[in-house]
Amino acid sequence: MFEIKNTIKNTECIGLTMVKLTQEKKYEILLIVLEKGQSFPPHSSLRNTLLIMLEGNVKFNINSERYTLGKNQIFEFPAKINHDVLANGNSKFLIIR
Hints:
Elements: H1 7-10, E1 16-23, E2 28-34, E3 39-43, E4 49-55, E5 57-62, E6 65-70, E7 74-77, E8 83-87, E9 91-96
Antiparallel strand pairs: 1-2, 2-9, 3-8, 4-7, 4-9, 5-6, 5-8
Domain Cupin type-2: 31-92
Protein name: Cupin type-2 domain-containing protein
Pfam families: Cupin_2
């Protein structure tokens, strides 16, 4: 009936890992895990997106601007804009879109 999952806690920082935690008609939640020095290559989303940092530190590049995001910070960005992410340290963050 109800289940507690430890997916976020148990996903190790090895390379680039993307785990779909849930998907509904109106949104999906993804866990992105980046090992220090790894990057998530340029891409865009079809939906407006909310990024929630759980651990670590990343450089987020969008519209020729660079943002440094750390633990417990939230960053929102619109759909259809290319962006990429570089991990300054082992990092975990949620994408809600």
